[in-house]
Design goal:
- The protein is mainly α.
- It has two domains: 178 residues, no CATH class; 65 residues.
Length: 316
């Protein structure tokens, strides 16, 4: 029976198992990231006082801010996990490892749906080897769950654009806003999708030479608009000062936007030389490769580019 199993599948299974073992081993609480205490503190405060904020902030129970301009009601995923499996740093990290594994599978489905070929496995492999993916799908923060939500959003978007129906695009807009409940960086994806649908709407109007209120881009903006207004009403209006507590009181956030991003790029090159090398190699490959593979290369570079912009800290 074993002889009937292709060697490449055996190797793939071995790689996955070995990767999971190493990830679990690296999750041992022999080190800690300062933000892990932040999220565990939210859980402790909710259990002890029913408040959805870090106890160290002393915001009380009269706010829906959760944790400043960061995580929204997605924190209940972490709270539910810790309620079931216990208040353990290692246990929290296991949730993130699980989210990372699911995300890898979603990446495969996304790429397979996009290119309709088994080359999709390359995208999943890329997600696994890029160092920012490895770290942020292990550390006990909300990043792994956020990456999973963004991946599911992209999958929903690809499914929507393959259909004639317009309502799926409404839900793409709605889900893009809901992703900010996991992490506020979901706004990057809201903005990217808005640019895409805005460009498509201009194309439609230019072709039809009239406003098209029944077009699929309008459905997207309606979904994003309705859920965006609800987000503002629920999270921001009750206490704007508390909502913007992190960006307004964080001492390491005082640098200008430009300086912060320059620092991120410097940190990326310094601490992630392999990723930097991959950017150069794949960029060259994208320029010289056949048209069939060029779009994959551009996506690969874009993915690592997002890591440069959003992930490396602007400080040591």
């Amino acid at each position: 029976m074993a002889k009937d199993i292709p060697l490449k599948r055996i190797l793939l299974a071995a790689i996955i198992i070995l990767g999971v073992v190493f990830r679990i081993w690296a999750s041992q609480p022999t080190w800690i990231h300062w933000d892990e205490n932040f999220y565990i503190n939210i859980f402790q405060n909710f259990v002890d006082r029913g408040e959805l904020t870090p106890y160290m902030w002393r915001l009380g129970n009269d706010t829906n801010i959760i944790s400043g301009a960061g995580t929204g009601y997605g924190i209940f995923i972490l709270i539910g996990w810790m309620t079931i499996f216990g208040e353990s740093l290692f246990g929290v990290r296991m949730l993130m490892v699980l989210a990372g594994l699911v995300t890898t599978w979603v990446y495969y489905l996304i790429s397979k749906q996009w290119w309709e070929s088994r080359e999709a496995g390359i995208a999943a492999m890329t997600f696994g080897i890029v160092s920012t993916s490895a770290f942020y799908t292990l550390v006990g923060r909300m990043d792994a769950l956020a990456i999973l939500s963004y991946s599911l959003l992209l999958f929903l978007h690809i499914v929507a654009v393959r259909q004639v129906k317009k309502w799926p695009h409404f839900w793409v807009g709605a889900v893009s806003i809901l992703s900010t409940e996991i992490h506020i960086l979901g706004l990057l994806y809201v903005g990217s999708l808005a640019i895409y649908y805005g460009f498509r709407y201009v194309e439609i109007v230019s072709r039809e030479r009239k406003l098209m209120l029944d077009s699929y881009p309008v459905y997207f903006f309606c979904g994003a608009g309705i859920f965006g207004v609800l987000y503002v009403i629920i999270h921001i209006l009750p206490d704007p000062q508390a909502y913007f507590l992190i960006p307004t009181t964080c001492s390491i956030c005082e640098s200008s936007f430009l300086q912060t991003e320059i620092n991120r790029i410097q940190r990326f090159i310094t601490f992630r030389p392999l990723d930097s090398f991959l950017v150069i190699v794949i960029s060259a490959f994208a320029i010289k490769s056949r048209e069939r593979y060029r779009h994959f290369s551009i996506l690969f570079v874009g993915y690592i580019g997002v890591q440069i912009i959003a992930k490396p800290p602007s400080f040591v």
